[in-house]
Amino acid sequence: MALNFNQYASEGNRFLKGYAKAMNLGDNTEKAGRILIAVLHALRDIIPIQESLQLIAQLPMFIKGAYVHGWSSKKKKLRIKRMPDFIDLVRKHDGPAAVNDFEYSEEVAEQYIRTTFIYLRQYVSLGELQDIRDALPKELKNMVYSNLMF
To answer: Distance between CA atoms of 94 and 134, rounded to whole angstroms?
Structure first.
């Protein structure tokens, strides 16, 4: 299998443009990219490594790279049980840009998280999303489950 980095870059740019539009960010792919990475990194912090590996297997190359960047499988999983705590974790992964990216609104942050899972549905099977949902604490299940049935 030959690596075609130009193709990966092209697919990644197309994905980010569509994702930015789905997030109502216009053409702001930089902000969309930061939000996507923050949500993915927060997710990988709380789901079992086995689920992360199964998720990665379904992601296109350009998202795989974003998912695994800076990842240590030896790091202990965080026990996040409530949506406000998950939002805080997402903001932490977004770093200083979180103030602007998520405004100061829990509702905006939660909508971005839900939209991310909806958009990832293009690549991730319903079965895998169900497995991820099952691995989440009760109060976090709705960020995935409500978006499974389309």
So the answer is: 25
Which phi and psi angles does 27 have, rounded to 5°?
Answer: -100, 15
Kindly give the parts of the chain with pLDDT less than 50.
Answer: 150
Q: What is the pLDDT of residues 29-49, one digit of tens each?
A: 999 999 999 999 999 999 999
Q: Which amino acid is at 113?
A: I
The pTM of this model reads 0.91
Determine contact, residues 31/20, Cβ cutoff 8 Å.
yes
DSSP per position, 19-54: HHHHTT-TT-HHHHHHHHHHHHHHHHHHS-HHHHHH
Find, among 84, 109, 82, 107, the residue nearest to 98 by Cα.
109
**Cα separation of 143 and 145, whole Å?**
6
